[in-house]
Design brief:
Blueprint lengths: L2 H11 L17 H5 L3 E5 L2 E4 H14 L6 H27 L6 H14 L6 H8 L4 H21 L8 H13 L5 E10 L6 H16 L4 H8 L10 E5 L6 H8 L10 E2 L3 E11 L11 E10 L6 H17 L3 H11 L4 E7 L8 H5 L10 E3 L2 E11 L6 H32 L2 E3 L2
Antiparallel strand pairs: 1-2, 1-11, 3-4, 3-6, 5-6, 7-8, 7-10, 9-10
Helix pairs in contact: 3-4, 4-7, 5-7, 8-15, 12-13
Length: about 425
Amino acid sequence: MNIWNSARHLVAMKSGIVFVLLLVGSLPSNPVAAQTLGIAAVVNEEIISAYDLQSRISWNIITTNGRNDAETRQRFTKKVLDRLIDEKLKLQEAKRLGIKASQAELQRHIRFVEGQLNFPKGGLSRFVSRAGLSQNVLNGQFNADIAWNKVINRVLGFRVKIGEEEIKDRIRQIELNKGRPEHRIMEIFLPVDNPDRETQIANQATSIVQQLEQGASFQALAKNYSKSPTANRGGDRGWLRAGQLDPNIDAAIANMRPGQISQPIRTKNGYFILLLHSQRKPQEENKNVDPIVSVHQFYLPLPSNPSELDVAQKLKIAKDAKAQSKTCKNLEQYGKKVGSTSLNINKIKLSSLAPDLVPLVAKLKINESTELIKKTNGIAIYMLCNKLGKKKKNTKLTIRKQVKGQLLNQRLGRMAQRYLRDLRRQAFVDIRL
């Protein structure tokens, strides 16, 4: 099996993960030969080589499980060159602002990808090296993405303001749809920032849907072409309910089944292509939760044949211990004074306690104790010291935070698109193909 087929096989095994591997296939591995391919474009006096372009085309083919033939490569050329021009502009703007991706940030990103692919540390680089590529080819897109995120946060972050009424309106929509199924959505977003480009963007959206229908990886296409902030996550929007998205998108999702890809959906900002990854019914909070508990046992043993007086004396001591102990530490200290056989039961699942104790402990608050329990050989008290599990959330606060975050990301994403569009308008771009 050759390198090209090996890599395609690996991508197929890792479906659902964007495999960042720039594999050049039939490109010349000799750097001198590669230079003869010439210049694809000049962006503000910086060169994009034809070799870089062909390498990235190969990357697009392999990550979308496409055919490596002349027709496919030609179809990818303009889209990939546009992406490379954008990356060059992002890096130039970052340099102007004194921003760059640090080596540590780059390595963390690479390690994250390796982890997703179950590669050992350095495994991705070794794989790329075996394909005869330079490490710089692997790092190019990472550097642009990291630097651009830092630019956006510095230049635009403070400008984004979300009004209280916007948040309330979105929450009202969510409340109206409460109880409806939740959907995990993947998206590819193509903005229409110029009416003159309407037809071009619509055709691009149709082309992407056709590639998806032919088996291309949704995550890879989202990574390559989507202009949404979710692009770096392969388009993953996470779990959403109706009312959290554009009404046109909500309407489309309502008629989709898990695994289905939508046709291009026109909204006021551009075209969306959706994948309904999965859906679920709303989860009932704290249902079937098995928390981790820590419990202190206070135990006063009785003689083998206790008299009524023995029992009465032990009961009085136990009652005093319960009345005077406000915490587990208090109860333990009191037990040492009166000869209790104390026991700390630490970090155990509630369901793992003795069956008769489970319902008693389940009702306790922290530092609250059971009533006295008379056993065959002694008197026991159990106090709940700690409880770890799904804490009851402030639903209104949680939803508000999520909604505000979504609105912020949407607003910041649109501003970032305009920022990049302005950079391109001001740039000197000479395409030489």
